[in-house]
Amino acid sequence: MDFFEIIYGLMYGEYVLEGYRVPLSHIVRHEFRPGSKASRIWQRAGDARERIARRLGTDDEDPDLLAMVESYEELQEYMCRRCYEYGRLCLRPARHGGQKGKRHAVHRRAAQ
Q1: Is the pTM above the cut of 0.85?
Q2: Is 1 strand, coil or helix?
Q3: Domain for residue 99, yes or no?
Q4: What DSSP line would sit under 61-79, residue for residue?
Q5: How far apart are CA 28 and CA 9, in angstroms?
Q6: Torsion, CA 9, CA 14, CA 15, CA 18, rounded to 10
Q7: Which domain holds residue 106?
Q8: Domains: count for the chain
């Protein structure tokens, strides 16, 4: 398991922290805890999925509805991983190939 997977799992609440300690669990919070912004967004998506299922005359386990939800979840994880990787790359000291202290060309152009 890599560092990203630990952080992502903590954010999703995949660990039972009472049973054992997970690195960074004291820093990274469960973003889907009750009342959180993520849980409200998730609830809104779930409610919409149920409404669509009713209109289609199926249940919310319809294969196409599930494929849509699972695809968005996969896309979200992919994009999160890419953001994480870009962040690590940008914070890496210059001697290791990172850009610390350097402005990217796009930022130089915008500043002109």
Answers
A1: no
A2: coil
A3: yes
A4: T-HHHHHHHHHHHHHHHHH
A5: 10
A6: 130
A7: 62-112
A8: 1
